[in-house]
Amino acid sequence: MLKLIYTENCFYLEHLTLSLEEWVEQRVILALRVGQPLYFEPSTASFLLPVELPGVERLKAEVQQHDAEVMELSVCDAEYLEVTLQGSWLSDSSENAVGVFVTAMSDRTEFFLRKLWQEAQLCASVVNE
Fold it and tell me: What residue numbers bound the domain in which 51 lies?
């Protein structure tokens, strides 16, 4: 399972070994125990990856073979590829842009997407320095 955590300033992508159902169940139980409202709905999430990132072509092949119903890849411009994921949005209200997006796909694609996202973050931090 992939979990994208959206904050006010950025987002972070994690790979979890729990199934989507197990994680949602634990999250609902936590919200009930602490008295926190929980908003849950089917949704999509998107983020960008540099087109020049080594492994992008391999990701395209993985998506076509295994995960086309969950992930879509679109060229934005000469520099970036948009990754759009189907999944579920969880937050404390329907109006909140801060929350968690979760999705599940093949383990191989999840691992590979996480690795590419980490490499893109490293590239961005090197450019910013």
Answer: 2-128
